[in-house]
Amino acid sequence: MFHSSAHPATPREERHTHDDDDDDYMMMMMTTGNLLAWRGVQPHIHSSAFVAPTAFVIGNTTIGQESSIWFGTVIRGDVHEIRIGARTNIQDNSVVHVTGGKYGTYIGSDVTIGHRAIIHACTLENGCFIGMGAVVMDGAVVQSGAMVAANAMITPGKTVRSGELWAGSPAKLLRPLSQEERNSFSVITRKYVDLHQEYRALLGDTA
Fold it and tell me: Could you tell me where the beta strands, DSSP code E, fall in 109-154?
């Protein structure tokens, strides 16, 4: 589980420091995507992850195995850290950023983030779902198995609890999720793993 605080903890299984000597992580420019150092700190991208050619990953950012960062997305770990787990997909034209000196952004494993979402200085726990155009603000937490509806805004410091669907701007609890809805989250993440592997092959990146 992820924790939200002024300096949130990152779970041990997802933690990856820039001092690690792990051949599965890359600091070099990939054949896909644009990786930029910030103040000498390079992003660390797992070798099985996919960063689309028009996406940018910047600074103190770690992306886990089989995750995918899609076209036009910006992951900007400049004034704090960003940690993204395994098999997470961040879809086209989304923005992930932080708040300097206060909040990093912590995204767990098996998370789906829809097109044009803004994820800002918050915590998304394993297996949650963020709809298209949604905004999640500073210090907010979306717990495992929770869903934020399309175009919803989660205001600073709010917690979307496991099994809940929040909608609206500002977002409020709409209803509990059905088990069928919760089960669909893992189906979507698996499809995105398969899809990004096709794109890697198309772009000639078979690392």
Answer: 112-113, 118-120, 123-124, 129-130, 135-136, 141-142, 147-148, 153-154
Residues paired with 106 in a beta bridge: 83, 123
Burial state string for 102-124 with b = 16 or more CB within 10 A and e = fewer than 16: ebbbbbbbbbbbbbbbbbbbbbb
pLDDT in tens, 79-119: 999 999 999 999 999 999 999 999 999 999 999 999 999 99
Domains in the chain: boundaries: 12-202
CA geometry: angle 55, 116, 103, nearest 5 deg:
80
Q: What angle do CA 129, 180, 128 make, to 5 degrees?
A: 15
The pLDDT tens digits for 138-188 are 999 999 999 999 999 999 999 999 999 999 999 999 999 999 999 999 999
At 56, which amino acid appears?
Answer: F
Q: Is the pTM of this model over 0.70?
A: yes
With the C-alpha atoms ordered 167, 122, 71, 205, is the resulting torsion angle positive or negative? Answer: negative
Structure tokens at 172: 């409020």
Write out the two tokens for 123.
Answer: 């915590």
State the Cα–Cα distance between residues 157 and 85, nearest whole angstrom.
Answer: 22
Element (H, E) at 190: helix 179-202
For domain 12-202, give the CATH number: 2.160.10.10
Tokens encoding 65: 């195995």
H/E run at residue 187: helix 179-202
